[in-house]
Structures are given as C-alpha cells and as structure tokens.
Design a protein that fits this description.
Helix content is about 20%, strand content about 25%. With about 425 residues, it is an alpha+beta fold. Helix 8 packs across helix 9.
Length: about 425
C-alpha cells in the first residue's frame, strides 16, 4: 500500500541508554515472553524481522515524520468514542501539571509542555455523549499525526496483556497456599531522571543496606522464606502458576468465597531482571516454540510440580501488590485503563497520555488488520524500544485469549497537538 506523505521533515530525538535496566513494571509481558509463534502479516504491512531481544540498541533515535489522517490505514472505520473517554482521563493528570512542565518523562522527549495540551483537554471535556463522528472530528481538529520510527525503521512489535482473575481467600488454608504480597516497608524506588536527565524514564528498585541501595531479595528467597524480609500477604490463591502470571501482568482480580472481588494493582518490584520461563522451556526442548502458550506452560508446571516450582524460581523478578478501590486496573499514568484503547509504551521515547494510532494485525486472524486509536497510559518491563506497544485487552476469558495470542509486527503514529511544532 502506498501512502501520501505530508512533507518530508523528520524530527530527531536522540536517547542514550546508558544503563540496560529492566526498570518498568511487568504488566503486559505475557504475549512477548510466553508466546513465540511467528506470524505472517498481510500485504498492507511490511514484514520486518521480529527481534530476538526486548532490549533496545544502545543508541536510539526517535524520528517523527508528519502524516495526514487520510493516509492512516483504516482511520475512517474506527470508533474512537472510548478513546476519547480514555484521553479525558489522561487529561486529569496533565491539568495538575505546571503549564511549563514537559508532559513526557524528560523535556528531551517529544510531546511539548502541559500548556500545549490544555486546549485539546478542555475541548474533550466539553463533549457530552459524543457520536462516532464527534470523536473523529475532535482528534482531526486538535491533532496532527506523525509516523514514529527508530532511525529509519518504523516497524516494531506489538503484544498484549489482560487483567487475570484468580480464586482465593484472605486467609491461608489447605487449598489456598500461594500468597500475594503487599509492598514491603523497606522497598524503595529511585527515579534516575531526577539525578541525570539522560536517564529519564528509568526507575530502579531496591533497599538500603549500610547506606547503599541494593537489589531486593530474589524470587526464590522470597518464596522459600529465606529473604529475611517482613512480608504481608494481601490474599492467598490456589494456583501458583496463575499467581506467577499475575506477577507478569502486574495487576488482577481475586474472587473470594463470598463472591467479593478483590482488585490488586502493581505496588513495586524487587529490582531483579526478568527471565522468561517460556524461553527456558523452549531451550530445554520441553515445549516447541510454535506451541508455547500460557496454557501450555501452566499444564507443564502442573504435570511437573517439583520441576515447575524450580522453573518459576528461575525468574528472579518478583512483584508486590496493593489493594485498589474503584475502577481499574491503574496504569503508569495513574488512571484506569480502558480495554482495547490503552497502550503501554516505553516512556523513555514517548510521552504518557498521548493519542497514538496503531496499525498491526488481529491476534486471532493473521489476515485481518487491527487498526485503532489508543492512548499511551502504561509502561511495562518488557516494553522497550521506540516502536514497541503492549495492548490492554481487559479482563475475562476473551481478553486472555486475545492477549495470549498477540505477537504482531506493525507501526504506530503519535498524535501531537496542532499548536505544537516539534523541533528537529
């Protein structure tokens, strides 16, 4: 497919990744880390090689190329009403910022200041019960699309995540033996951008020992009770594999015996690097790569309980939770995520709260495009790179199926306020 490009100007932002840190929450890593089946994109998308690693190059260049709405594949077919509602939620964060504050993690990242967004936010908040046409006209009136590329490459990887639901209880029993822990009192985080703007968007976790920040205890030490850390369980669940997947997703629900739903959200992590247990099973020859799914991993662990526990503990990363009241789950932008409309990105390269047009492939049909307008409202431990997105699909069996099969190549286009003229 040929597109009519509006102009040839490219905006370049260079970012030096000095520390290869795994510093974001592990929400949404399921499809990338657990599903490795190759996909065949239809003709309307190019077919780049899916990277073998989730770590970006040491030097990354964000290039923005001005585009037109008419050149966005499928733009006129999308119902953007839920996207508009999601954008209004993100505007709540922007309105609390100083007008001169950058909306991104650093002033070096494209996105402008809060003042550049207040007009669009004010207009969005005034739209009541919008029609499909109202939503489309709003975004076309207030924004300009830009193709996002890493250097000269606009192709990237898209995965999915969901909000799992587990059966559990508030007290330990013969059935419910696996704890979900609250954030320990001595677990702290450091936002590196506060110390060096070159490291904006990076956060590390650990605890202070003898005046120095050290990584927290590993998963094995925490689960075996040898960490020496005081831990408080928020709930107990029956299935240790589902508990592990809850760590991967970063948030979820626990259904208690009386039908009450306890919603848990990400509160912190131990600062250890994530290791894919799916990759371990493939390397061992236990499960072929083209058959690796969340269900196949779960079945293998249940069939090998002793080896399964050892397998899970090969991933040293561990996530802690907090109780959530009201709508959720809550993304890194501090707002409730919208199923099918919230996107996790690498905030070292793009701002949170921005509309972004995604062009990829349906997770359940390799011949069907998956093109829609989303809002950047989250981050993820596996979401690293300039063109890298993780789609939130919601809760329930359908969401799990969509997220579990989402590993597609594609492109995206960031929508920036028309008043903002990126300099490059």
């Amino acid at each position: 497919m040929q597109r009519a490009v509006s102009g040839e100007k490219q905006v370049v932002i260079k970012t030096t990744d000095k520390l290869p840190l795994n510093v974001f929450r592990y929400i949404g890593a399921g499809a990338l880390l657990l599903l490795l089946a190759a996909c065949a994109p239809p003709k309307f998308l190019s077919k780049p090689k899916i990277p073998d690693t989730i770590i970006p190059e040491k030097e990354a260049q964000v290039k923005l190329q001005p585009w037109t709405f008419s050149a966005l594949y499928g733009w006129n077919d999308d119902d953007r009403r839920d996207t508009l509602s999601a954008f209004v939620l993100s505007c709540g964060r922007i309105k609390k910022m100083s007008p001169s504050a950058p909306v991104a993690a650093s002033a070096r990242i494209t996105g402008g200041t809060a003042a550049d967004w207040v007009g669009a936010c004010g207009a969005a908040e005034k739209i009541n019960n919008p029609s499909i046409n109202d939503a489309r006209q709003f975004f076309e009136s207030w924004f300009t699309p830009y193709l996002v590329a890493d250097k000269q490459n606009p192709d990237g990887l898209f995965t999915g995540y969901f909000e799992p639901e587990l059966v559990g209880a508030l007290e330990k029993s013969d059935i419910f033996q696996t704890p979900l822990y609250a954030k320990p009192d001595d677990l702290i985080s450091a936002t590196l951008g506060d110390f060096d703007e070159e490291l904006a968007g990076n956060t590390i976790w650990g605890r202070v020992e003898n005046g120095k920040l050290k990584p927290y205890a590993r998963r094995k030490e925490i689960e075996d009770g040898t960490s020496g850390v005081k831990l408080k369980p928020l709930a107990w669940v029956a299935d240790p594999v589902e508990a592990f997947f809850l760590h991967v997703q970063g948030s979820g629900r626990v259904r208690l015996g009386d039908g009450t739903i306890l919603r848990l959200g990400f509160a912190g992590k131990n600062g250890r690097k994530y290791k894919s247990i799916g990759r371990v099973l493939i390397d061992r020859g236990e499960i072929p790569a083209d058959r690796l799914t969340m269900d196949s991993i779960s079945d293998w662990v249940k069939q090998h309980p002793t080896e399964g526990r050892e397998l899970i503990q090969q991933n040293p990363s561990f996530v802690f939770f907090r109780k959530l009241d009201g709508p959720g789950p809550i993304g890194a932008a501090g707002v409730a995520l919208t199923p099918g409309r919230s996107l996790a990105i690498d905030r070292r390269f793009l701002p949170l709260g921005a509309p972004i047009w995604v062009e990829t492939i349906d997770p359940l049909n390799s011949k069907k495009p998956f093109n829609r307008l989303m809002i950047t409202q989250d981050t993820g431990g596996a979401i690293k790179g300039v063109v890298r997105g993780d789609i939130f699909f919601g809760a329930g069996a359908d969401a799990r199926k969509m997220a579990g099969n989402m590993k597609r190549t594609g492109k995206y286009f960031i929508l920036l306020p028309t008043s903002l003229l990126p300099q490059g």
